[in-house]
């Protein structure tokens, strides 16, 4: 039973207020992309045992999508930030590095 | 014999008698008795039969850890199996029955298993019952199932109700013993919002029973004063009869309050499930005494020393006239002394330690109680009741030195902290060699959302076994919680507790140390499941070396007590068998709940009609009163059809279809989703989410659109109306409104967040009523107020105005092939408009129709239905809907996916109509059979039915289906599967069965 | 190497000597320096793979490596339901193969796995579900899977404790597979382990694979906490942790790991003789031979490796089941737990070659892997032995995701347990 903080409305809410939306920072590939690119966009997932960037929606709240950085092994939440971000904020990445030295996530780490 | 003594009993009220029945026999006890104490007071030691060997069993404990003394309580709609007598408070009228025996508790046929026990070691069933194979299902399994299972199943629904309660606490403290009380004081004084819960009806835990003095006075006085202090604090909430059931991630915890268990038939919920969010959780859950592993340790009358003391001090029950004590530690001497002080006989204390010299043994000696050191028990005389104890050297093989007549044996193998709640969410344990138990490792607590620990163990749950240390530890835990919350701890003295010090215990995992194999087969580890020491050794011998393997192979710790008494002893037995250290063998996983909680309490209030919300349209009441036969569609209820006197559902559907085709029908279409998309980029957004072009739609016009997901599959369809330059109204399917709204929001917020568009779900703001049939226009004209003529409001146009004085938006769209108007009016005026339509249409034969007629009407016209023609694997191209897929757009959701090799495969099954040769409808879901079988021996197929109906219009079965190269095979006859009958023949035809030219809808 | 047979006579003989003569069910040797085939993961699927490599292909120079204890993952955490009433041909084929192997597993392995063909009902509680299950019954009739769509009255007859007239979701019928049922999950793992050991294979527990050694695009062995071990072929069969292991092998999988929860009630005398699944309300229940009601529900929506789930899922499941089975309200929940399941993009499994030569993967069984164990092992063994998938595995390749050729079972049922 997670607690998450919605970065829009500022509410720290029960997990039941939110809806999980899978991996964050996926780049959408559309017409013109290769089969491999398109397959990776739709199906290949990092799925790490550790630091995970993921999407959530405050569905029973303000309705906004946001991103969370969370550890899938301990469920620690490192932070949340708006979904309108192409990469995790620098200060969040720094905070994660302090807690999980050597963490990796695609090109961010 | 066990009986009530004249003095004492701190928990009973001798002025108030309560009468109850056990196995049909009337008995009485006092208010404050548990069922176990009351039964013992009536000399009813034997209370049940064990699971496997049906051995006679009495209570071994006095609280939640009890494995033996389980009964069925009450009857009928209030019957509850497997209830512990030790935690059941008695009341007048209580009825209880013992379990797992036939014909009676005293004489049980199942006890024959006991004689066969040499043939039934751990896991015996894995090694036999294999031949002949059919006998497993026919004979072996039924016999095993019937002999297992403990209590009977309830036969009725539950007459009681349950509720959920939400609570947010800074500090939740589980356990109302002195450590928990002191922790609450520390946290409460600092101003934190505190919740303190205690599973029993009484506060103070074991301290009063153990004769602890606090601040120079008996513990009871300190407890009462502390409760007064806590009750006076507004920020502290106390609840007794409330058990900490589980600790979950991020400070979530469950507490289980037994509100009315003690007073059935009282008003209010039977159980209340507290769903708590706590900043910090302190587990002051105490410790549980361990049995000793000696032969015969399961005979009724053998009990934990602490339980014997509890029954004596709390309920004034002496469990025997002569009680032998057997121990490996000092604490059990308290029981001997208490019995002695009460005038009960203690013939001997058998202490496994070579010398017992602590203050407690010295006091016992001084009282003249005989102590045998370095000794143990190698046998217990008696079957259904202890009649004697056989003393042996602890270090030997069990040769009997002396047989002491007695009718009770009080045993103590040391104490294990209750670490369950600490462990539920990942807290780790450390092995304490001196006390021979696992206790919480404070350096590895459960981790909260911020990465810091959120559980603190306190008191004996933390391995602090003496009263003074418990108080100190409770205070420290309360202050640590305050600090973790960022609050400031306030001062306040900690009372000093005095109790005799204890000398070290001696771990004894087998008594006598070199017990023979024969003796080991009489040593019980898990009482309820009849797991013996020899079973654990067998498991180790056979390679079930992991503690999880041993547990599962022997069923150790899997009974209703979840191993509260047996786990450590079993673990020690396994370690010894493997020659490994206990901490290296590890423990099994602690899982919630701490003790079993009622399923009713978890389900809570949401039962019957309020199980899930039901959505109703503004005309719902009218439908109900006019024969509607409802079907659930998502959370909505929609009329399937409207039954008239004597009609079957099929009759009604036929009548509704014919009337709509011939005269005029009325459909409640309010459940259709209505999403408004507004903004400068609304058209651009819709071009991306629909497969067709929406930005070119002119205001005043409607267009049918398809939506896919990015995996290419068709997910929804509906008519889009352009309201003005920047506003579109998108209709979705009934089930799609919320889903598609979320879909649009997701893309808008997470992919195209630079677009200026806004989506609102207006589904429930409007009642939408379809007036359908050749007389539809006549009806609307009679209502008056708007020109709905062919030229002013052409097909696929919409107009706004007033009809019969009600603001209305009229869409000239058709899902039936008939002349059709869908009229949206404010929801509050839906019923009024419906009534006016009925009144105006009466002379033209207007009738409401339901969802099934809707389906038939659309199928006759070859219109697809999301959920019938689509199933999540179908793309628009399969359905011949290429005309609705724009070729001009660079991108739309699903476009790239539809270019993949399997999606462009010419051999995908395509939509066609199907007409049976004999005129009867095809079966729902039937498959078209092809020649031969595939590599897995499965019959090949070449298509399937997606929708099939009896068409009243054509008076024959019609269907749609997806067929291999279907559109190229018009006129071909296929074979379709039928249930239990030969295949049915159907011809491939055009999917439009009715009015192929579309003249009817265009008049 | 052959194991002494289990029988009633062996039990009687041992009873006379305090069961001192039983031998180990499986050996626990130190790893050799090299094997023909290494299987990572000694759960049901991994052990079954090893067993059929030996039995069907005579390949016995095999090691099964397990980081914890054999059968300690999802094999020992599931609700033990066995059925094969799947809609799509590839699924029906492999699950029916598995179900038929379960029928004779006790005799094949000489260990009683207590396969109990007590029957499985999947309830239809909406008109849509009725049509979905009718379709499945038609499909099954051509797939050689015996199922039938039955009436509410027949459902009630099979499960007298069920309330078929619930106010919210009345029972409209059910898909009935008479030869579906349950088995003793642990015994399946133990039985395969014992049989593998009997064929001379090494089952090496407490041996965590820390790396996968490669040379020229081919696998050459593994590095483990118990040293380096060479092999010609490698099978990765580590449900829940497939993504983590694939990363070590240098490729990625279309997999996400989620927590799935289950619970049992206290044991009661027999009151329900079949397995009931209610997908509309997300709950399923059977009664074990011990008497516990075994109950499963849905998954959490977020990636999770903790083997703990969120409690509100338990609430939802029990709320639904109390509606359907009112008598369980006064039973008590004894224990709840979670397992990590790996879910693929189409919720169907992967039995496939990988980008790494000689390395094969079996994963993605999601919430329904136990029932597939023997069929999965059979197909995986064929894939490893021949280097190419046989008919059972052919459709479950990794390539299907790029091609858009999905095996989607959610078509007929909301969830697939």
What does this structure look like?
The complex is a heterotrimer of chains A (109), B (1003) and C (417). With 109 residues, chain A is α+β, with helices and mostly antiparallel strands. Chain A has one domain: 2-Layer Sandwich (Folate-binding fold). Chain A has two helices and six strands; from the N terminus they run βββαβββα. By secondary structure, chain B is of the alpha+beta class. In chain B, helix 6 runs parallel beside helix 7. The radius of gyration of chain B is 38 Å and the shape is elongated. Chain C has 417 residues and is of the alpha/beta class. Chain C has eleven helices and 18 strands. The longest helix of chain C has 17 residues. The C terminus of chain C is likely disordered. At the A-C interface, strand 3 and helix 1 of A face strand 12 and strand 15 of C. Strand 34 of chain B pairs antiparallel with strand 16 of chain C, so a sheet runs across the interface.
What is the topological layout?
The complex is a heterotrimer of chains A (109), B (1003) and C (417).
Chain A (H helix, E strand, L loop, with lengths): L2 E3 L6 E3 L4 E5 L11 H8 L8 E7 L7 E7 L5 E6 L7 H10 L10
Antiparallel strand pairs in A: 1-2, 3-4, 4-5, 5-6
Chain B lengths: L2 E2 L8 E10 L2 E7 L3 H7 L6 E2 L6 E2 L12 E4 L6 E5 L10 E4 L13 H4 L18 H14 L14 E13 L3 H12 L4 E4 L15 E2 L2 E2 H13 L4 E4 L2 E7 L3 E7 L12 E13 L3 E3 L12 E3 H11 L1 E2 L4 E5 L4 H10 L7 E3 L7 H8 L4 E3 L1 E7 L6 E6 L6 E6 L2 E5 L2 E3 L2 H5 L4 E4 L4 E4 L14 E3 L9 H18 L12 E2 L18 H4 L3 E3 L4 E2 H9 L5 H8 L12 H12 L3 H4 L11 E2 H5 L16 H6 L2 E6 L2 E7 L6 H14 L2 E4 L4 E6 L3 H8 L12 E7 L5 E11 L2 E6 L4 H14 L7 E4 L4 E7 L3 H8 L14 E6 L2 E6 L8 E7 L3 H12 L5 E2 L2 H10 L48 E8 L10 E7 L5 E13 L4 E9 L8 E6 L2 E9 L14
Parallel strand pairs in B: 2-8, 9-10, 9-16, 10-13, 16-30, 18-26, 20-21, 20-26, 21-22, 37-47
Antiparallel strand pairs in B: 1-19, 2-3, 4-5, 6-7, 6-8, 11-12, 11-31, 14-15, 15-16, 17-27, 23-24, 24-25, 28-29, 32-33, 35-36, 37-43, 38-41, 38-42, 39-40, 40-41, 43-46, 44-45, 45-46, 48-51, 48-53, 49-50, 50-51, 52-53
Chain C lengths: L7 H8 L18 E7 L3 H14 L4 E4 L15 E2 L6 H15 L1 H5 L10 E5 L2 H17 L4 E3 L1 H7 L14 E5 L3 E2 L2 H14 L3 E3 L4 E7 L2 E7 L2 E10 L5 H8 L5 E11 L9 E4 L4 E5 L5 E11 L7 H14 L7 E13 L5 E4 L5 E5 L9 H14 L13 H4 L14
Parallel strand pairs in C: 1-2, 1-11, 2-8, 4-13, 11-18
Antiparallel strand pairs in C: 3-7, 4-6, 5-6, 9-10, 10-11, 12-15, 12-16, 13-14, 14-15, 17-18
Helix pairs in contact in C: 2-7, 2-10, 3-10
């Amino acid at each position: 039973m997670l607690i998450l903080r919605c970065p829009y409305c500022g509410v720290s809410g029960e997990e039941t207020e939110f809806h999980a939306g899978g991996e964050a920072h996926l780049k959408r590939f559309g017409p013109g992309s290769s089969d491999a690119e398109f397959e990776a966009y739709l199906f290949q997932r990092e799925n790490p045992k550790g630091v995970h960037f993921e999407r959530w929606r405050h569905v029973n709240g303000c309705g906004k999508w946001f991103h969370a950085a969370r550890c899938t092994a301990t469920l620690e939440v490192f932070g949340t930030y708006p979904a309108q971000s192409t990469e995790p904020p620098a200060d969040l990445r720094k905070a994660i590095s302090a807690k999980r030295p050597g963490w990796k996530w695609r090109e961010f780490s | 014999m066990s009986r009530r003594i004249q003095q004492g009993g701190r928990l009973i009220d001798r002025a108030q008698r309560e009468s109850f029945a056990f196995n049909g026999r009337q008995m009485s006890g006092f208010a404050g008795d548990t069922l176990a104490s009351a039964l013992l007071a009536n000399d009813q030691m034997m209370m049940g039969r064990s699971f496997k060997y049906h051995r006679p069993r009495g209570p071994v404990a006095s609280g939640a850890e009890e494995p033996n003394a389980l009964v069925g309580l009450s009857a009928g709609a209030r019957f509850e199996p497997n209830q512990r007598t030790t935690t059941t408070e008695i009341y007048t009228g209580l009825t209880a029955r013992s379990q797992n025996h036939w014909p009676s508790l005293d004489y049980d046929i199942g006890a024959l298993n006991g004689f066969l026990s040499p043939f039934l070691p751990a896991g015996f069933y894995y090694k036999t019952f294999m031949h002949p194979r059919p006998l497993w299902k026919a004979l072996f399994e039924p016999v095993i199932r019937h002999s297992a299972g403990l209590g009977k199943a309830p036969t009725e629904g539950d007459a009681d109700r349950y509720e959920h309660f939400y609570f947010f606490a800074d500090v939740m403290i589980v356990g109302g013993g002195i450590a928990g009380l002191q922790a609450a004081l520390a946290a409460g004084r600092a101003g934190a919002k505190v919740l303190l819960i205690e599973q029993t009806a009484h506060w103070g835990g074991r301290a009063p029973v153990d004769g602890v003095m606090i601040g120079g006075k008996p513990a009871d006085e300190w407890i009462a004063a502390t409760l007064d202090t806590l009750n006076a604090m507004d920020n502290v909430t106390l609840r007794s009869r409330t058990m900490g059931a589980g600790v979950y991630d991020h400070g979530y915890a469950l507490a289980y309050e037994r509100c009315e268990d003690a007073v059935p038939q009282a008003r209010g919920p039977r159980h209340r499930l507290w769903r708590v969010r706590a900043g910090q959780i302190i587990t002051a859950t105490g410790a549980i005494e361990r049995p000793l592993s000696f032969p015969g340790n399961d005979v009724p009358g053998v009990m934990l020393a602490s339980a014997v003391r509890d029954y004596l001090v709390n309920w004034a029950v002496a469990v025997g006239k002569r009680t032998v004590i057997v121990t490996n530690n000092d604490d059990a001497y308290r029981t001997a002394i208490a019995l002695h002080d009460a005038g009960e006989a203690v013939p001997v204390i058998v202490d496994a330690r070579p010398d017992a010299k602590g203050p407690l043994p010295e006091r016992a000696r001084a009282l003249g109680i005989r102590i045998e050191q370095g000794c143990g028990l190698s046998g217990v005389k008696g079957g259904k009741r202890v009649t004697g104890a056989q003393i042996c050297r602890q270090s030997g093989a069990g040769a009997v030195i002396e047989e002491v007549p007695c009718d009770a044996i009080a045993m103590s193998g040391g104490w294990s902290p209750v670490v369950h709640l600490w462990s539920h969410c990942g807290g780790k344990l450390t092995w304490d060699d001196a006390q021979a138990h696992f206790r919480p490792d404070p350096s590895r607590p459960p981790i909260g959302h911020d990465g810091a620990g959120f559980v603190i163990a306190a008191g004996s749950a933390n391995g602090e076994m003496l009263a003074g240390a418990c108080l100190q530890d409770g205070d420290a835990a309360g202050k640590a919680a305050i600090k973790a919350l960022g609050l400031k701890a306030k001062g306040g003295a900690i009372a000093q507790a005095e109790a005799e010090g204890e000398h070290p215990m001696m771990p004894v995992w087998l008594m006598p140390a070199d017990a023979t194999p024969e003796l080991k087969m009489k040593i019980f580890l898990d009482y309820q499941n009849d797991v013996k020491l020899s079973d654990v050794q067998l498991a180790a011998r056979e390679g079930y070396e992991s503690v999880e393997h041993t547990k599962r192979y022997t069923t150790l710790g899997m009974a209703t007590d979840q191993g509260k008494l047996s786990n450590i002893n079993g673990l020690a037995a396994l370690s010894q068998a493997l020659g490994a250290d206990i901490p290296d063998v590890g423990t099994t996983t602690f899982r919630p709940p701490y003790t079993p909680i009622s399923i009713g309490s978890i389900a809570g209030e949401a039962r019957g009609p309020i199980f899930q919300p039901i959505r109703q349209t503004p005309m719902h009441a009218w439908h109900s009163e006019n024969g509607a036969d409802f079907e659930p569609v998502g959370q909505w209820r929609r009329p399937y059809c409207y039954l008239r006197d004597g009609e079957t559902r099929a009759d009604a559907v036929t009548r509704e279809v014919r009337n709509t085709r011939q005269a005029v029908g009325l459909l409640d279409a309010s459940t259709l989703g209505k999403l408004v998309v507004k903004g400068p980029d609304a058209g651009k957004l819709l071009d991306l989410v629909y497969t067709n072009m929406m930005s070119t739609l002119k205001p005043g016009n409607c267009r049918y659109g398809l939506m896919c997901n990015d995996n290419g599959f068709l997910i929804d369809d509906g008519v889009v109306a352009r309201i003005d330059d920047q506003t579109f109204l998108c209709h979705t399917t009934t089930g799609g409104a919320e889903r598609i709204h979320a879909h649009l929001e997701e893309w808008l917020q997470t992919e195209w967040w630079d677009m200026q568009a806004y989506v609102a779900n207006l589904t429930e703001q409007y009642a939408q009523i379809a007036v359908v049939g050749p007389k539809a226009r006549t009806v609307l004209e009679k209502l008056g107020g708007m020109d709905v003529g062919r030229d002013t409001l052409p097909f696929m146009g919409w107009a706004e105005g007033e009809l019969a004085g009600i603001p209305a938006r009229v869409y000239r769209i058709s899902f039936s092939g008939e002349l059709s108007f869908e009229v949206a009016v404010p929801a509050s005026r839906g019923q009024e408009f419906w009534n006016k339509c009925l009144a105006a249409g009466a002379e033209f034969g207007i009738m409401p129709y339901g969802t099934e007629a809707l389906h038939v009407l659309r199928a006759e016209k070859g219109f697809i239905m999301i959920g019938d023609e689509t199933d999540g694997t179908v793309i628009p191209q399969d359905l011949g809907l290429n005309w609705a897929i724009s070729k001009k757009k660079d991108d739309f959701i699903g476009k790239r996916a539809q270019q993949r090799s399997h999606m462009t495969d010419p051999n995908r099954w395509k939509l066609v109509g199907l007409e049976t040769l004999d005129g009867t409808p095809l079966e729902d879901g039937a498959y078209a059979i092809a020649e031969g079988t595939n590599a897995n021996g499965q019959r090949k197929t070449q298509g399937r039915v997606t929708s099939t109906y009896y068409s009243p219009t054509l008076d024959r079965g019609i269907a749609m289906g997806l067929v291999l190269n279907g559109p190229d095979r018009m006129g071909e006859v296929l074979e379709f599967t039928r249930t239990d009958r030969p295949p049915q023949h159907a011809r491939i035809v055009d999917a439009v069965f009715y009015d192929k030219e579309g003249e009817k809808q265009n008049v | 190497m052959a194991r002494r047979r289990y029988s009633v006579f062996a039990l009687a003989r041992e009873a006379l000597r305090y069961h001192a003569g039983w031998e180990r069910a499986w050996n626990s040797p130190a790893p050799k320096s090299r094997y023909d085939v290494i299987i990572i993961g000694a759960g049901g699927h991994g052990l079954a793979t090893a067993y059929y490599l030996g039995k069907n292909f005579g390949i016995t120079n095999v090691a099964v490596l397990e980081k914890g204890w054999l059968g300690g993952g999802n094999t020992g955490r599931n609700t033990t339901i066995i059925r094969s009433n799947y809609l799509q041909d590839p699924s029906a084929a492999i699950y029916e193969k598995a179900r038929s192997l379960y029928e004779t597993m006790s005799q094949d392995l000489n260990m009683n796995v207590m396969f109990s063909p007590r029957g499985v009902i999947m309830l239809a509680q909406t008109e849509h579900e009725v049509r979905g299950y009718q379709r499945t019954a038609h499909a099954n009739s051509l797939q050689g899977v015996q199922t039938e769509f039955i009436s509410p009255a027949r459902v009630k007859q099979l499960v007298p404790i069920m309330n078929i007239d619930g106010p919210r979701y009345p029972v409209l019928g059910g898909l009935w597979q008479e030869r579906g049922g349950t088995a003793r999950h642990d015994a399946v793992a133990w039985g395969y382990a014992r049989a593998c050991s009997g064929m001379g294979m090494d089952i090496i527990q407490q041996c965590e694979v820390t790396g996968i050694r490669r040379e020229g695009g081919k696998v050459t062995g593994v590095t483990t906490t118990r040293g380096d071990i060479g092999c010609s072929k490698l099978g990765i069969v580590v449900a829940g942790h497939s993504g983590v292991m694939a990363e070590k092998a240098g490729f990625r999988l279309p997999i996400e790991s989620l927590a799935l929860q289950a619970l049992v009630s206290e044991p009661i005398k027999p009151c329900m003789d079949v397995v009931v699944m209610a997908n509309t309300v997300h709950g399923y229940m059977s009664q074990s031979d011990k008497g516990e009601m075994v109950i499963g529900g849905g998954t959490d929506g977020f990636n999770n490796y903790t083997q703990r789930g969120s409690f509100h899922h338990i609430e939802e499941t029990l709320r639904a089941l109390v509606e359907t089975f009112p008598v369980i309200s006064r039973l008590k929940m004894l224990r709840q737990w979670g397992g990590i399941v790996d879910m693929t993009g189409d919720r169907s499994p992967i039995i496939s070659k990988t980008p790494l030569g000689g390395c094969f993967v079996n994963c993605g069984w999601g919430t329904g892997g136990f029932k597939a164990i023997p069929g999965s092992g059979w197909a995986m063994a064929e894939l490893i032995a021949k280097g190419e998938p046989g008919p059972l595995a052919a459709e479950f390749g990794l390539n299907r995701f790029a091609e858009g050729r999905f095996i989607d079972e959610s078509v007929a049922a909301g969830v697939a347990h």
